[in-house]
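[agent] plan:
  1. take the single chain provided in the ticket
  2. run structure prediction with default settings
  3. attach structure tokens to the ticket
  4. add a short note for the reviewer (M.T.)
[agent] executing step 1
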Amino acid sequence: MDMGVKLSSKDVAKHLGIEPVTVRKYASMLEEQGYSFNKDSKGWRLYTEDDVKTLEYLCTMTKINGHSLDETVKHIASLYRSKLTISDTATSLQDNPLIEFMKRQEDFNRRMAERMEQFEKRQQ
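[agent] step 2 finished; step 3 output follows
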């Protein structure tokens, strides 16, 4: 994808395998947190390659990794406001021991929450 090319919501949706309405929803949520998209004379968003990577990261974190949508949007917008970006790295995240630790910690947290719920039910 050429950095100078500006894509529509429909183009981005096709690239990401989601519906255009979902692209617009995610973009709107990001804008509410301070993220800025280029717009045409009609006020329609024009997505850059960085915007597409950002939306792809958002989809990955929420669908595959199970992070909440609001949490992820706030995280991305925070990076954007700090002039940082979501970018491809030379390091594979699949082999990163920190990622594996985070997955184990999330699993532990989920199990603990389930146990607390069971305990609360017994108390009632």
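[agent] step 4 note for reviewer: The chain has five helices and two strands.
[agent] ticket updated
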